[in-house]
Amino acid sequence: MFKPKEMREVNLLVAERDIAAVTRAIARLGMLHLLDVSYLGRKLPVELADQQELIRTCAAQERRLDSLIEAIFLEKPPDMERVKAAPERDLGRIEARIRQAEREIKPVIERVAEIEQEAKYLNLLVHQLELLSPLDIDIEDLQKLDYLHLAVGLLPAANLDRLHTSLFHLPHVILPFRQEDELVAIFAFAAKDKAEILERALKSAYFSPFELPKGLSGPLTKALQQTRRKIAELREEREELARRLDELRERWGDELLSLRKRVRANHMLAEAMGHFGRTEHVYFIAGWLPKEVVPSFIAKMKELTEGRMVSEVNEPQLVLKGATGVPIALDNPPLFRAFEGITAIYGHPSYGEIDPTPLVALSFALMFGMMFGDVGHGLTLAALGGLMASGFVAKLRRWASLAPILIACGLSSIIFGLLYGSVFGLDDVLPALWLRPLDDIFSLLMAAIAFGVVVLNIGFVCNMINAWRERNWHRLLFATNGLAGFLFYWAILGSILAYSRGIGMGMSTMLALVGLPALLIVLGEPLANLISGEKPTLPSGFGGYLVQALFELFEALIAYLSNTLSYVRLGAFAVAHVGLSALVFILADMMGGLAPMRWLTIALGNLVVIGFEGLIVGIQTLRLEYYEFFTKFFRGEGMPYRPLSVPEA
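Now predict its structure.
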């Protein structure tokens, strides 16, 4: 807690004959965070292990399997994560099974696609023939016109006059023969040598042409019957193919899902091996492991290779300078793990940096509860969190990771609700154990500022601990968030408190208290260089450095005041919460003697307050964490620990 797990860099020299088995074992164990190959070249004269051909093969197999699975599972296929399959050593066997499946499945799905395309065309043709069928005309009469060009189709009725106008100088005939909603079906005739002009005019009038059926003859009614008969035949064939797909799904479904899992595992292993370095007969693997699992990991690798392996373990301080950063494996108690996501939104702690997750878990819940203090509203949030965690409601399962945060915030709101004496906005049910926000606003705001002072000072302390671990003397002793900044903050705060309470302080005392830490901040860079044994030079000259340092000191002073006063919102939102809850009862009282409407208004109003203000309070809490607290000490530039892992059979 408060610091990530200790990590070790592990380097392995593995014989070429063992590399495939070792890679599978590493992935199965799910422990090793691989280092990038660009780093490996710094340690040994190795070249990149070329796995591009295998990667391309696996990617192509994945696409082919995806196509087959999508074809035989007409609905959503089973959850791939539940399918157990290990990497397949014999890639030729996988390819043979994919080809066999394609030989059996592809003709069926291709014919299904052809039927669907043909049925789509025939259904459109039926619609067009239904519009033409009242006319006693043979299809041949429409298709064999020697001197005329004919267009048949639908046109917006509003465009009919415009079409006549555009064809005013062209001999033509427009025959409307059926109205359908806002569309009109027409025959459009013109001389064959004027066909292009007619088609342009029709297109500009948003004309949708009918395609006269080919291969059909006789009256239009007969063509309509033939087309419907063909659709029925296609439907029967489609049903037969659906039964065939059911058989293929029964035969191939599980195997294709397993193959898909195996190919994906092979793909991941190929990409992992692409990070390895290699010489002629030896592979070089480097990565990070939590310290406690290093002995068991190396023992398993040696057992697997029967001793044909050389290993090296380095502490982070001994790793080659300029190497990729040490990955971070957080180590928090189960109660705090849900809050790791809040920290991760801002960033991950660097190796050796304080993990703020436990502090976030406590401060987030406390600040939320202070702004949202109500026993009933807190119980509602906690119950919602419990419902998410239980998994009883399917639509809430996706939010299960937020359940502990909601429960913690709900419990905190209950505690502050007891302190405020508020239950669903009612302040006459419980006695206030501390104060009622609307009755003592000043005390509440002062308490909020005091809480902010405590949080900011925790930030100062955390920054100094981080600086000590880095041996960064400027950050530790002279930075605005270091020891000098800490003293400067308290000198200003103490002066304000003394003045507000009428405690007399001499000017010399005040100048000494404020001036000494301010001077340390201003001269921080040369003093830090002096402590580090370096020459206390000023690169920009004394004048330029002094101006810059004074501006930074003024900026720090403004930041101290604004950061502290930002916590006033804890009290302000507590007052607003009580006010909104009271507004709900004012609206309910306006219903007069309508008891059902009154209680409905109270219920809906409380739900709105819980949802709307709960969201706003959550955002404000995040803002205080990120902008007021984290900026004091947390850089968030770390890299998360992501070990290579594939499913085990």
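The first strand starts at residue 7 and ends at 15.
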